[in-house]
Amino acid sequence: MESNRITSKGKEDEEAEAEAEAEAEALKKRISSHPLYGLLVQTHMDCLKVGSVDDADQSHGNMKQKLAAGTVPSSSLLTQPELDHFMEAYCLALSKLKEAMEEPQHETVAFIKTMHMQLRDLTTNYPQSPDDPSTTSSDLRSVT
C-alpha cells in the first residue's frame, strides 16, 4: 500500500513537471512570435557587442528609432497586454544597459585621444630627441 502511494506521488510529480514544461514552451512560443522579439534579440546582441568598436554609435541611433516605432501596439497585441508591457520594458532596460556600458568606454576613448594629442604636441614642440648626441642633459633641463 505504501508503494502505491509513492507511485501515485511520483506520477503526480511527473504530470506537474510535464505541465510546467508545456507552459514554458507555450510562453516561449508567445515570446518568440511577439512583434518586438526581433528588437529584443537585436538589443541584447548590441549589449554584448559594446566592447567592440564597430558601428556602436550608428546602432545606438537605429535602436532608438526602432524602439519608438515598435512601442505602438497593434490591435492583435491588445490581447496580451502583460507580454507587450514586458517586451517593451525589457527592450528599454537593455537599451539603457547598453548606454550605461558605453558611457565609460566613450570617456576612455576621449581620454586616450586627448592624451595622444598632448603627447603629439610634446613631440612636435621638441624636434630633437634625447638620443641625439647634439642634445645635452643641460639643454633638456633648460627646456623643462
Automatic annotation (TrEMBL):
Where in or outside the cell? Nucleus
User: What is the protein's major site of localization?
Assistant: nucleus
Q: Per the record, GO CC terms?
A: nucleus
Keyword vocabulary terms for this entry:
Nucleus
Q: Which residues form the KNOX2 domain?
A: 73-124
Which InterPro entries does UniProt cross-reference here? KNOX1, KNOX2
Q: Does the keyword RNA-binding apply?
A: no
Top-level taxon: Eukaryota
Name all KNOX1 domain ranges. 25-69
Protein known as = KNOX2 domain-containing protein
Native organism is Manihot esculenta (Cassava)
